[in-house]
Amino acid sequence: MRILLTNDDGIHAPGLEVLEAIAARLSDDVWVCAPAEEQSGAGHSLTLHQPVRLREHGHQRFAVTGTPTDAVNLALRKLFADKRPDLVISGINAGENLADDITYSGTISAAMEAALAGIPAIALSQAMRERGASFGAAQGWAEKVLRPLIDTPMARRTLINVNFPDLASDAVKGIRVVRQGFHDYKRGSLVEGTDPRGRKYYWFGLEEMEHTLDHGTDLEAVADGYVAVTPLQLDLTNHAAIGALAEGFAS
Ligand code: MN
For residue 227, what are the contacts with CB-CB under 8 A and spacing of at least 6? Predict the structure, then answer.
């Protein structure tokens, strides 16, 4: 089984190192193609206005001077012209990717890019209160989540979003398959300042967000100490709204 690993925290991120160790237990044909620099919050963006470069960082390890989507795209077109990967795993992100935050996430978007290409894709994120905290839950539970996911046929154009709670591995209660939740819309802090040339700037800060712990959501599962597993699809259509909207145009 050929596995491609990527992320949005960059080729030197500790979470990628953790993922490489886990992937080595699943396959002897593991490749890495990740952004050269951190791309958290890059979402599904694609670099169009400048070239990107592919740099070799060891055996079957590459960095791309672009976004997570660039990394997957370039890997599929350039590295795997002969034999495509059977699975793409993105992560392990330093920080959770839950609820509607997933649309900002480069970690999730890398998996989306693979799903669009018809390749089974899994995004892994470790909830952590502060940067540099432990990947303990992911280290203890990733293989238990990944093996059944690999053995289960994945629906087309579907990716799996996995979030590990911010707990020691032996404190994690289990695995729950849940739906995506929604945050209340509070986008953390906005810092205002003045740059050295006297111009005002604004800087978005991330803070603990308020959210509604609806039953059966990824938010609730992680808050309860479980690994949250959520199948995501790329069809964003609100199917239930189609009828009413069409009626508004019928005359
Ligand atoms: Mn990240």
Answer: 137, 141, 145, 162, 163, 164, 165, 172, 174, 175, 176, 221
φ, ψ dihedrals at 46, nearest 5°: -125, 135
26-44 pLDDT per residue, tens: 999 999 999 999 999 999 9
Distance 34 CA to ligand 1 centre (A): 12
Among 195, 204, 186, CA closest to 40: 204
Q: Which amino acid is at 133?
A: A
> How many whole angstroms from 212 Cα to the centroid of ligand 1?
23
CA-to-CA separations, 148 to 8, 50, 110, in angstroms, rounded = 25, 40, 21
pLDDT band at 187 (very low <50, low <70, confident <90, very high): low
Taking the CA atoms of residue 198, residue 199, residue 200 and residue 202 in that order, the dihedral angle to the nearest 10 degrees is: -120
Residue 50 CA to residue 251 CA, distance in Å, equals 47
Tens of pLDDT, residues 224-235: 999 999 999 999
Contact in structure between 181 and 142 (CB atoms under 8 Å): no
Model confidence pTM above 0.90: yes
Tell me which residue of 238, 237, 126, 221 sits closest to 179, measured CA to CA.
221
Sign of CA pseudo-dihedral 176, 135, 41, 46: negative
Q: What is the distance in A from the centroid of ligand 1 to the CA of 240?
A: 33
